[in-house]
Design brief:
Keywords: GTP-binding, Membrane, Nucleotide-binding, Transmembrane, Transmembrane helix. It comes from Tetradesmus obliquus. By secondary structure, the protein is of the alpha+beta class. Helix content is 32%, strand content 25%. Strands 18, 19, 20, 21, 22, 30, 32, 34, 35, 36 and 37 form an 11-stranded mixed sheet that branches. Strands 12-11-17-8-9-16-13-14 form an 8-stranded antiparallel sheet, with no helix packed on it. Strands 2-3-1-4-5-6-7 form a 7-stranded mixed sheet, with helices on both faces. Helix 11 (426-438) crosses helix 19 and helix 15 (568-591) packs antiparallel against helix 16. The longest helix has 32 residues, at 2-33. The two termini are 45 Å apart. 42% of the residues are buried.
Length: 760
C-alpha cells in the first residue's frame, strides 16, 4: 500500500507539471486571441450568437454539471446563461420548483441550451443530494462530458465520489473546476492539495489515462469568473468572465458520436406533462433525424417490445429560460417531443419504424427505502383535504413515478388501495409526500423500511458513507451514537481553518485507535479540542432519524454529508475482474469453431457479465449487521376524542414533551407527545375542568405550558415507530397508532411478545 501511494504521488506530481505547462500555454493562446485580455461580461455576449438551429452534430456539445450538494452547480449555470445572452430575473433560475427554492437544493435534473462561438451547447444541471442520485444517473447517457465542480475549501466529499464514479463508468472525461476560490481558505497550497486528492480519487475509481488527464480550472460562480490559473489571493482576474471555462468545454467535450444516415432513435430521459399537448418526452437523439408529423414507435427498454405507436405533434427545445419550437431535429441534439401516450416511460426508446432494438439506457441503482401510502382513515379524515380516496392517491403516485427514474410504486396485494413507494432516502420520500400534501390530499404513511437483498443465502443491506464535521468535545458522543447504529468508523482528521477542509498533511487515524481513544476519554474530545472530520460507513437503516439527533446535539453547528458507500478497491477489483472475464469469454466465443464450444463460451460470457453487474452493484451493499436497538423513548397517546385543553395538559406536562397545543383536535390513538420513559402511556389531553361556584378565571390564566415540539415531515419520518403511522393533511402532520383502540393494542402486543418468545 505504501508503494502504491508513492507511485500515485509521483504520477500526480508529473501530471501536475505537465498540466501547469498546458494551462500556461492555453492561457497564452487565449491572451493571443484577445489583445485586450479576457472579455468582460458584456464583451462575452459578442462571442455568443443568437440561438439558432444547428444541423451539424460536430457543432454540438452536450455536458452535465455534477458535484456534491451546495458546491455551486446552479449558481454556475446562472453565470453561464447570463454571460451567453440570457436575462435572469432572479438567482437559481434553473430551480423552478417551489420546493427547490424553499429547501435551497436541486431536486430534478434540468437542461437548457445556449449558443457560444457558433456551437450549440446543451447543459444539464443535476442535483447534489444523495437521495436524488437517480436524477444524475438518468441524464449521463445523453451527455458526452461533465464538469466536476468541487468546493476548493471543502474538497471532494461523499457525493463527489458517487457522481464521479457514475461519470467515469459511462466513459466521460470530466473537467475539474475548483469553485469558491474567492474564499480566504482557498489558497494555492489548499487548491494543490484538493487537486492531489482528486487525482487519487480518480485513480481509486478506476479512471483510465484519458480520464486521469483532466484539466483544472479555478472559478468563483458567485462572482462570475473562471480562470486557468489561480489569481493572487483569490481575487477575480482583470476583465474576468466564464469564457475560459466555455473554451475548455468546447475543446475537451467531444461532439456527439452519432450518425445522421441511420433511422431516428432517442432514449427518453425525462417525462413531463403539458396541459395543452399532454405528455412530453425529453432526451438526446442518438441517430437520424426527426420532424413534426413523423410516425414513430415506442420500444420498452426491458423487453424491447413495441408498446405504443404515435405521431409526433410537436418538437421543442429549451433555450435559456424559454422554449423554442422546431420543425425538425438532428442526432446529437437534446429535444422534447410531444405525442407519447401513457405507455411510454423513462428509459424507453422512441424510434422510427425501421428500428428493431431498444437503446440501452444504462444501469440505475435500485431504491433503498420504502413506505406504504394509503388513504387517511383517522377520525379527523376529510376535514382539511380535497382528495381523500386511495385510488386518487395511487393515480398521483403513478404520475410521480413517471418523472423520477429512482422512484417505484407498487400496489399492495389484496385490493386494499395501499401503495408501496420505494425511493433512495428520507428526503426523496418527504418531497413526494409534501407534493401530495400541497395538492390537497390526505394520506397515511407507514414507517420507512430498508430494502434488503438476498445473495448466495446471505442477507445484504445498503451502506452509506457518512462524513461529519463536529467540534472536538462532541466527537466521543457522535462515535458512540453511530457505532450503536452499527456504523463503522473509517477515519478521523482535523479540519483546517474551520472552513470544512481537512488538512492536507494530516494523517488519518485508524478506526480502532480512535474508538479506543474515545472510550478512554468518555464523551469528550478524541485527543483534541479542534474541529474534526469523521468518516463512517453506516447501514442505511441506521441513519433513519439520526439527522434530528445530530442537529440537536451539535446545536446546528455540525455538518453532515451522506452518499451511498463505494466498497473501495475490493469492489472495483471484483468488478474489473468480472468485466475482464466477460471480455475473455466473448473472445473465446468468437474464436470457437465448434458450435458447442461457442455456445459454452457465450454462456460463460453472459455469466461473467452478470458477475460484473453484480460486483458493481454490490459496491454499496454489505452483510446484514444485526438489529439496531431503538433509540426513541415512549410516547404519550390520547385515550379520548375532543379538543386539547390547557387544564389537562398542565397536569401532564411533567410526563414528557407535547407535540400539540391547547385547542387542537385529538382522538383516541393519536400520539400527542413524547414520554420521559421508554414505555408508551395513555393520557387524556381533552379533560375539562368541571364548573363550580368557586372557580376563578385567574387560576386558569396562571397555567403556562412550554411550547410544543414542532415536527417537520422529515423529522416525523425518522421518528415514527413500527406500530405507528404518519397522518398527513394540508393542515397538519400528526403521528398516530396503527391500531387506535387501546385494548386492541394491548392484545396485539401480547401476541407479538408470545410469537417472539416462541421463535427464540
Amino acid at each position: 500500500m505504501t508503494a502504491c501511494k508513492s507511485l500515485l504521488s509521483f504520477t500526480f506530481q508529473a501530471w501536475r507539471q505537465s498540466s501547469s505547462a498546458a494551462g500556461a500555454a492555453t492561457c497564452a493562446l487565449w491572451h493571443g486571441q484577445s489583445a485586450a485580455g479576457w472579455p468582460s461580461w458584456t464583451g462575452l455576449r459578442s462571442y455568443s450568437s443568437s440561438f439558432g438551429q444547428v444541423t451539424d452534430p460536430q457543432n454540438i456539445r452536450d455536458f452535465a454539471i455534477i458535484a456534491h450538494i451546495d458546491h455551486g452547480k446552479t449558481t454556475l449555470m446562472d453565470r453561464l446563461l447570463s454571460q451567453c445572452g440570457t436575462t435572469l430575473t432572479h438567482e437559481r433560475a434553473m430551480d423552478s420548483n417551489s420546493m427547490e427554492r424553499e429547501r435551497g437544493i436541486t431536486i430534478l435534473s434540468k437542461y437548457t441550451s445556449f449558443m457560444y462561438k457558433q456551437h450549440l451547447v446543451n447543459a444539464v444541471d443535476t442535483p447534489g443530494h444523495a437521495d436524488f442520485g437517480g436524477e444524475v444517473e438518468r441524464i449521463l447517457g445523453m451527455v458526452d462530458g461533465a464538469v466536476l465542480l468541487v468546493d476548493a475549501a471543502e474538497g471532494p466529499l461523499a457525493q463527489t465520489k458517487f457522481v464521479l464514479a457514475k461519470a467515469l463508468s459511462r466513459g466521460l472525461a470530466p473537467i475539474v473546476v475548483l469553485n469558491k476560490v474567492d474564499r480566504p481558505a482557498a489558497t494555492q497550497a489548499r487548491c494543490d492539495a484538493v487537486a492531489s486528492q482528486l487525482f487519487d480519487l480518480f485513480a481509486s475509481l478506476g479512471a483510465d489515462d484519458r480520464q486521469l488527464d483532466f484539466p483544472i480550472l479555478y472559478a468563483s460562480s458567485k462572482q462570475g469568473w473562471a480562470s486557468l490559473t489561480l489569481p493572487p489571493l483569490g481575487n477575480p482576474p482583470e476583465r474576468a468572465s466564464m469564457a475560459p471555462l466555455l473554451d475548455v468545454i468546447l475543446a475537451h467535450v467531444p461532439p456527439p458520436q452519432v450518425s445522421l444516415q441511420e433511422p431516428f432513435a432517442m432514449c427518453v430521459a425525462m417525462i413531463e406533462r403539458d396541459p395543452f399537448v399532454g405528455r412530453v418526452a425529453t432526451g438526446r437523439i442518438q441517430s437520424g433525424q426527426v420532424a413534426v408529423g413523423d410516425k414513430v414507435k415506442v420500444l420498452q427498454y426491458e423487453s424491447g417490445q413495441v408498446i405504443e405507436q404515435l405521431k409526433i405533434t410537436k418538437i421543442e427545445k429549451k433555450a435559456g429560460l424559454g422554449k423554442v419550437q422546431l420543425q425538425s431535429a438532428v442526432a446529437g441534439d437534446v429535444v422534447s417531443i410531444a405525442g407519447p401516450g401513457d405507455a411510454a416511460g423513462i428509459a424507453d426508446t422512441i424510434a422510427a419504424p425501421a428500428v428493431a432494438q431498444a437503446l440501452d439506457p444504462g444501469p440505475i441503482d435500485p431504491p433503498t427505502l420504502s413506505m406504504v401510502f394509503s388513504a387517511n382513515d383517522s377520525p379527523l379524515a376529510g376535514k382539511a383535504g380535497k382528495a381523500v380516496t386511495g385510488r386518487t392517491i395511487g393515480q398521483r403516485l403513478a404520475q410521480e413515478a413517471e418523472a423520477s427514474v429512482s422512484l417505484r410504486v407498487k400496489a399492495m396485494p389484496g385490493g386494499t388501495e395501499k401503495y408501496e413507494v420505494q425511493a433512495r432516502g428520507e428526503m426523496q420520500l418527504a418531497v413526494v409526500i409534501e407534493g401530495l400534501r400541497r395538492e390537497g390530499m390526505e394520506l397515511a404513511v407507514s414507517p420507512p423500511q430498508v430494502l434488503l437483498r438476498e445473495e448466495n443465502g446471505r442477507r445484504l443491506e445498503p451502506l452509506e458513507e457518512v462524513v461529519l464535521e463536529v467540534d472536538g468535545p462532541q466527537v466521543g458522543t457522535i462515535i458512540e451514537a453511530l457505532t450503536g447504529r452499527k456504523g463503522e468508523l473509517l477515519e478521523v482528521t482535523p479540519v483546517a481553518h474551520g472552513f470544512g477542509a481537512a488538512a492536507a498533511d494530516s494523517s488519518s487515524s485508524s478506526a480502532a485507535q480512535q474508538q479506543s481513544s474515545s472510550s478512554s476519554e468518555g464523551s469528550g474530545s478524541v485527543g483534541s479540542t479542534e474541529r474534526q472530520r469523521l468518516v463512517f460507513e453506516v447501514p442505511a437503516r441506521g441513519m433513519i432519524g439520526f439527522k434530528t439527533f445530530f442537529a440537536g446535539f451539535t446545536r446546528g453547528e455540525g455538518l453532515m454529508q451522506r452518499a451511498f458507500a463505494r466498497r473501495r478497491f475490493l469492489c472495483l477489483a471484483a468488478a474489473a475482474a468480472a468485466a475482464a472475464a466477460a471480455a475473455a469469454a466473448a473472445a473465446a466465443a468468437a474464436a470457437a469453431a465448434a458450435a458447442a464450444a461457442a455456445a459454452a463460451a457465450a454462456a460463460a460470457a453472459a455469466a461473467a457479465a452478470a458477475a460484473a453487474a453484480a460486483a458493481a452493484n454490490a459496491c454499496r451493499y454489505g452483510p446484514y449487521r444485526g438489529p439496531i436497538s431503538g433509540s426513541r423513548k415512549g410516547v404519550l397517546v390520547s385515550m379520548s376524542d375532543g379538543r386539547a385543553t390547557t387544564y389537562a395538559m398542565y397536569d401532564l406536562v411533567q410526563r414528557g414533551t407535547f407535540f400539540i397545543s391547547p385547542g387542537e383536535d385529538v382522538y383516541a390513538g393519536m400520539v400527542v407527545g413524547e414520554n420521559n420513559r421508554d414505555a408508551d402511556m395513555d393520557v387524556n389531553p381533552a379533560k375539562e375542568k368541571h364548573l363550580t361556584n368557586v372557580r376563578s378565571v385567574q387560576a386558569d390564566e396562571k397555567m403556562v405550558l412550554p411550547p410544543p415540539r414542532a415536527m417537520t415531515l422529515e423529522e416525523a419520518i425518522g421518528y415514527v415507530a413500527e406500530d405507528e403511522l404518519i397522518e398527513v393533511t394540508p393542515a397538519a402532520i400528526r403521528l398516530r397508532k396503527q391500531v387506535l383502540d387501546a385494548g386492541q393494542r394491548k392484545v396485539a402486543a401480547k401476541r407479538a411478545a408470545a410469537a417472539a418468545a416462541a421463535a427464540s
